[in-house]
Amino acid sequence: MATADETPESGLTDADIAPARLLCFAVYSAAHAFTRAYKPLLDRLGLTYPQYLVMLTLWQGDRLPVKRLGEELGLDSGTLSPLLKRLEASGLVNRRRDRADERQVIVSLTERGLAMKPEAFGILERIGRAAGCTAQEAAALRDALQRLSNELNADRVEDGPSPMSHDAGDGISAGAISKTETLL
Question: What's 20's DSSP letter?
Fold first, then answer.
């Protein structure tokens, strides 16, 4: 029989489900903290965070099809098209139909967009310092979050054991988590 603060189905207590103990809340809080840290820096460039991500992607390889940009950033065309339209109106990118394949739209940097690159990279350095972790710690966090995102995007949310029951070499093993160490 479950106690007053325990749910009979899961055996979790009220303390187990406190937001501060949940991984989803930690990710949510960290995302908001990143947004607050980036906002004043990106405001100086006249960019939103999603626009900044597009620019970072284009600085990696200019002249990309819209479809590839969307794939790289996990953005659908309904989100990406207005974002690109605003970047084009700001004079940072051009959008042109591909001459070889009229169905594709190619996005390229303007001189002004390319000239912004050094200042934008400075933002990455400032955010890195503000995060307060080493490059190795940041890489481990990024890799763990990418695995988590991939698992959640695989649409495996169902009743039953966690699909993340392995240790990927970073010491994080979701399968080893007891009910009192609820993460998700």
Answer: G
CA–CA dist 168, 172 (Å, integer):
7
CA atoms of 99 and 66, how far apart (whole Å): 14
Q: How many residues in the chain?
A: 184
Q: Which residue is listed with tokens 């690109």? A: 84
Task: State phi, psi for 110 to the nearest 5 degrees.
Answer: -85, 175
Task: Match domain 18-146 to its CATH number in 1.20.120.140, 3.40.50.720, 1.10.10.10, 3.40.190.10.
Answer: 1.10.10.10
Q: What is the mean pLDDT of each run of 10 residues along the chain (184 residues)?
A: 56 85 93 95 94 95 91 91 96 92 92 94 91 92 93 70 48 46 58
Do the Cβ atoms of 90 and 46 come closer than 8 Å? yes
The first and second tokens of residue 118, run together, are 């050094």
Distances, alpha carbon 17 to alpha carbons 13, 152, 161, in Å: 7, 20, 18
Q: Are 55 and 87 in contact (CB under 8 A)?
A: yes
